[in-house]
Specification:
- The protein is of the alpha+beta class and about 120 residues long.
- It has one domain.
- The protein contains 3 helices and 4 strands; from the N terminus they run αααββββ.
- It has a 4-stranded antiparallel beta sheet with strand order 1-2-3-4.
- A hairpin with a 2-residue loop joins strand 1 and strand 2.
- The longest helix has 14 residues.
- It is globular.
């Protein structure tokens, strides 16, 4: 199965700029190092948002978890980067109960992702 309504999935700007591409964020700095080394940049954050959406559209959902607040979807597979690399990443999306549009939660490299 694919992520429901991936074409309109929400990817908050602050999640990309203040977390995934922030070398100073306490929890996101290691992810930022990976994404920046892959060619993504803070001043062109839209490229990472587009790559995340494409990643979710291109790959099947690998895990679905129900919670009291909605459903969590995990998508794993390769992602195209500006440097032409195709590392394997995991992206996580959440669809709140009684909603139709999923929201991006996080993404990170899978083990060995930089060995593409």
């Amino acid at each position: 199965m694919k992520l429901p309504n991936v074409a309109v999935a929400l990817i908050p700007v602050d999640k990309v700029t203040g977390y995934l591409l922030s070398p100073t964020h306490r929890d996101g700095r290691h992810k930022a190092a990976f994404f920046i080394a892959s060619g993504f940049a803070l001043d062109a954050w839209q490229a990472l948002a587009a790559a995340l959406r494409k990643h979710a559209a291109d790959h099947e959902v690998s895990k679905v978890e129900s919670t009291p607040f909605g459903t969590r979807y995990v998508v794993e597979g390769t992602m195209e980067t500006p440097f032409g690399r195709t590392p394997s990443i995991r992206s996580v999306w959440f669809l709140e109960t009684n909603q139709e549009v999923p929201r991006f939660v996080t993404a990170y490299p899978l083990k060995g992702a930089d060995d593409d």
